[in-house]
Amino acid sequence: MNPPLKWWQTAVFYQIYPRSFADANGDGIGDFQGMISKLDYLADLGVDALWLSPHFPSPNWDWGYDISDYCGVAPEYGSLGDFQAFLREAHARDLRVILDLVLNHTSDEHSWFLESKSSRDNPKSDWYVWVDTPPNNWQSCFDGEAWTYSPERGQYYYHYFMKQQPDLNWHNPQVKQAMWGAARFWLDLGVDGFRLDAIGTIYEDPALTPHRVPLNLAGLRRASELATTPAERTRVERYWHDMFKNQLGQPGMHDLMKDLRAVLDEYPGDRMLVGEDDNIDYMGTGEGELNLVFNFPLMRTREITPPHIRRNQKERLARLDELPVRGWGCNTLGNHDCTRLYSRFGDRAHDAELARLNAALVLTLRGTPFLYNGEEIGMTDFLITDPSQLRDTMATWYYASLVNDLKVEPGEAALRAAEMTRDKNRTPMQWSNQPNGGFSPAEVTPWLPVNPDYGAGVNVKDQQDDPASLLSYYRRLLRVRRSAPALAEGEYIPLHLTAKAYLAFLRKVEIQTVLVVLNYSAKRLDLDLSRSSQLRGHVLRTLFRSSGRARLDGSPRSLPIGAFEVYIAELG
Ligand code: GLC
User: I need a labelling partner for 83 at 20 to 30 A (CA). Which of 134, 170, 225, 415 fits?
Assistant: First the structure.
């Protein structure tokens, strides 16, 4: 008998981007009272856990990922009391809550950095990474040079992200103790775990080996945009890897993660850690370090196809199985850093159908699913082509580099910035067809523009009671998942391994076997059940058909699955 699964293995997580979720006080920015008012919606949707992007005080150069106080609440989101009310109300609805823990860097306005930069011999002088002169050509992945001069101290500090995000020196045990103190602060309040931000960036190559790419960051971004042939694409991918390989994924993490795990284990209730990285090594032996790392390779593709999914699952699940204590997967197709699922994996002709298929994919594969707010109503990327409206510093920096350094024509530069910025996938949640999509009152200008498609049905209110809506579809799927233990817990057994147009697999626990068929093609499929011994002779009991057509029960020789249809059935 396998041990029973932990809550974070069977839960469906939903990421809230607080700034864009719900604005209760009408200042154009989401807040905790807004989030509290939407908890019934989330409970009814059928998710089990919430991940909040950072809600801490921040000067917002990176919208909360530059933290100036790890134990506070940004005033625009409310007070600590509001946070506690949110946590209490979430727990009362059986919704767990995990927070974002940003370990690699703080804000340059954090008191630790202010002290560290004040002199070369203050008590925190060694809390960040200081050098007399830039020792190499390392780049910041957000804004060019990775070494920035501090006139107060007369030295340079290192930052993997923006210059307003100095890297902490994790070789200093005091840094660790201070950060674990912050983690305990939230664990004491009752949070259920953390999503660890950018963990691959914590350590750097101690030899400070320079990169050998013949471009700087802006040049490489531009080269990536202009790469059209497979050979050019492969070359820029290699460049991306080579440019940052000495600043990422360096040794030292196992001890650090064991330490953090020990902090979480001081608390009852299986507090969990999920790492923003796709490297399974961060799970250590399968216990005692991270519980989950995201399966980013699943989404790191231009197109989600059945062969891609099969390859991905084969590789991931094998790696997880090899760990001394069997590891658990974690699937996602969207977050606050990337193009929205609906836009990214659409083909412009069948976006709605593909969004449904991909939602079903994430919710039926083996592993913990993470959804991103707004995907359940089909929110799409919203391109902000006026550079003065961009809020993502990474994009304003790139726009300026394109125009000033690379002499790209401003119209073209604006388009490129609109495409690369993360603003496009962070626009306010669309709650209704009222002005501002019901996010903020009509007279208010939200911090990012609302995608005008809220007026064309892409909003919660219009979809809420419409059985044919995407929202109803997510709700139905989540209910099927909850009612079928095989979908939450079961082994994954791929079927029809060479099919290009569709994906068919079983999920299997002792008491139940479920068949999932995802038809990724525009053609009707007649699935020949006699082809696999696992299906032959079984009686099917339909659990879900995306088309809403009549059930397909019994033991047919072949199953008629419509174009882009999702079919889920229990095997008897
Ligand atoms: C992570 C976050 C991203 C942030 C970066 C720096 O990748 O997801 O939003 O900008 O870390 O903290």
Answer: 170
